[in-house]
Amino acid sequence: MFITFAAISLFSALFYISAVKSNSIAALSPGEFFQKRTGEAPEYQPGMYTTIIDDQENILSMMSRAVYAGDEIYTSEGKIYRLEKVQGDLASARFMGVDPQITAFNEFFTSQEVPVTKEKSDNTPAPPASFAIYHTHTGESYIPSDGTQSIRFKGGIYKVGTVMAERLRKIGMEVNHDQTAHDPHDNNAYVRSRRTAAKLLSTNPAAMFDVHRDGVVDPNFYREKVSGQDVAAIRIVVGRQNPRMSANLDFAKQMLAAVNNVHPKVVKEIFVGKGDYNQDLLPTALLIEAGTYTNSREEAERGVDLFAEALPQALGISPVSPAPTGAASPGKSTGASGGAWKAVGWILGFTVLGGLAFLLISNVKLSDAKKMLIDFSREVIPLLPRQAARKLGIGNENKKSTK
Q: Mind listing the pLDDT tens digit for each residue in 231-240?
């Protein structure tokens, strides 16, 4: 059996070499060969991209990755296009109608002014939601700001992720921004980053984002004007080869509607393509592309900042407000409690005065009066409000550290 296996392996290697030399197939790196075997859609280097046209041959989208028949695009307006034919770097897509879920989400977020506050059953505010951010392609950078398209192990994409994390923290969320490097830039990086994503799951995140940038040449393809500033729009990518694909896509539609309801056109589209992208780990795991390598990093940072701002609303989570200045500390009573004690004091005062007057008028003996006062105190004291006992540990919880 070993000899047979060795013979087959040698034959395959010789066939591969001869095919490459004759240009009948393109040379594949070991990583790309593995991608072909696993069915993962290969990603291109910056400057290489696929153009997708609609029925009227208008440019529908561009992206620096391989696409396949059956992939889908959901536009910011909710239109669905399905890719039917792919020839080299050109693909054609057919209009499939308007997505009813995106329409429903648009109507919902348009009518919703304030996110619903989630509370525990004991009416105490829920703890701040936790979010996870990481980067599969950690070298990705932006030429206008970083001077190059890629900086191995420490690309500008880290700073984009940091801006997203800081926005979430400012609105009261907890964030775990993992900056583990997964270079080189190939699809096997998703195998390496899976360990990072799995580790982040231990923080029980409400959502998890793998933050990238695209590799199309034209920066204007992503550039939008928001409040007078240039912003790099965001593409959401959902892998269609995982068992959670339906849930991932539902969440992507929520994000598209929620963000664009506040900041129109910030989410450019949703692309549903061949691959997994580790989204099988969590129903609310998404890959986002913040602009392209020819946008400035500042444009991308503005885009993710606006994206993160709408994230709690998309999930129906209220930001956690800090305690108001001058709030009463445990053990002190103010406000309504203080008012209650004042009311009790007035009631007791009038009761005692009335009782003394009754005793004087009734000519009650001193011994009998003493007995009546003792009985009165035994009846009243159990009714007085008591200060709540302070529970051990309140105010001394260990807060989860963020990176």
A: 999 999 999 9
